[in-house]
């Protein structure tokens, strides 16, 4: 009995050590909360759609309700719950550490305009990946959250834009480029530019957009560093969607509701996709150069008025756990939940 008691005690200590909210938040722990929130939101959708409701999950009403619920449970609630862990080394408030500092309207306008090349790149990668996926004999896979309205009215377009772009942009910026970003040391920036885009793509739940999500996740990391706040990434995503609405006919994307096999895809998508990638790369280089110079100027003041801020950042950086601490059981649990969603939903 004593052996069993000791084993149970060790197991309890192990579980407590593994799943207790850490005093200093690491980057892997929030992923578990995102995975749990995501799968709960989808189970709620499944339960609601099993009843006699007057709308489908792909209708505008179902899309607005369920994607808003998903963003709330997977990204916003975990951020609110866990951001308090930054209070111990943030002199202002936990939210200030997650949201970042206001660095001026000019850099935010640049972030918004960088949505133009992001749209070009995402649309091109979407078309190419869709063709290659079907060319390999795979079947059409619809996104986990999908809305189809044949001839949408202005009100329906606005609702789709708010629920499908604005709300997710705020949610993913809060979670990935607020909570997760703040859980990684500044000197681990290059590693963050790999880890965060992978997690961003993992929680996109859109097969054909996986390559675009990786590229998007990387660029949003660049914006988060150079703008010093989450509003840069959020405005970029909004600008990307607005660009699609304005010039969507010029750079078209494949409508997966109208194709069955790869031969159904018109050659015009390739004639527009390849040049669009080159144009996007050139524009990205321009925005990268301008934003980097802004960041260098801001963090290297000639007058020394930024020394206090740099000292606070150094103290804050030393309080953040090392990168390896984020590779833990909660991280793998969150990834498993995300994989289950990819497989079953």
Structure description:
With 345 residues, the chain is mainly α. The protein is built from 13 helices and no strands. It has one domain. Helix content is 69%, strand content 0%. It is globular and about 70 Å long.
Provide the residue-averaged pLDDT. Answer: 89
Kindly, what is the distance between the CA atoms of the first and last residues, rounded to a whole number of angstroms?
45 Å
Summed up, the domain count is 1
Number of helices: 13
Please estimate the helix content: 55-70%
Beta-strand proportion? under 5%
Biggest sheet layout:
none
What is the molecular shape? globular
Short key terms for the protein model shown above:
single chain; mainly alpha; about 350 residues
Brief account:
The protein has 345 residues and is mainly alpha-helical.
List strands and helices in order, with pairings.
Elements: H1 2-19, H2 29-49, H3 60-82, H4 94-99, H5 105-113, H6 115-135, H7 154-182, H8 189-202, H9 210-227, H10 231-247, H11 268-299, H12 307-319, H13 329-344
